[in-house]
Records
---
Amino acid sequence: QVQLVESGGGLVQPGGSLRLSCAASGIIFSIYPMRWYRQAPGNQRELVALITSEGATDYANSVKGRFTISRDNTKNTVYLQMNTLKPEAAAVYYCNVNWSRRDYWGQGTQVTVSS
């Protein structure tokens, strides 16, 4: 049974930083690409960042240079370091893995950016 559990969200002021974590279980974590998505109220869920099994990364244009995705295969965990946060980054952040041709999602973690 695949499980993804996100943590690390919260309230941060504009310009601040947060580090999200997503712990995975039920899969051979090291061989799968992992993704972070976010969804703000009234918006579609959008891809924020991805990291391949080899560690290659890619980002949405809106977060390039400010967000960093990383993974620790010894802990079955993927991270999203978010710096210089802007109010428009406020959303529920989800991690994702596609396993056996099916998308799995965590419960999400809320990020609020406000002064």
---
Amino acid sequence: QVQLVESGGGLVQPGGSLRLSCAASGFTFRIYAMSWYRQAPGKERELVAVLTLAGGSTKYADSVRGRFTISRDNAKNTVYLQMNSLKPEDTAVYYCNANSSLRDYWGKGTLVTVSS
């Protein structure tokens, strides 16, 4: 059974940091590109960061570049999103995605709230 389980969300003050984790199981993690998406209230889901299967290439949304870092540990079947200098506009549900040419898997999301 394929599972992507996000964790690490919560309430943080502006300027603070959080690290999200996404634990994968039920598929060959190392051959999938991994991404983080987010969806804020009333808005469409948007791509935040992508990491290729070999970990050699990353892509970030302009709004998070320089503040967020995506990484993966293939030995632990886990992808991370380190989020620094958080802003209120980063408030959203963050989703983990695993993608190959044939398959596309999603987690259920973890809520990040940036507020004072």
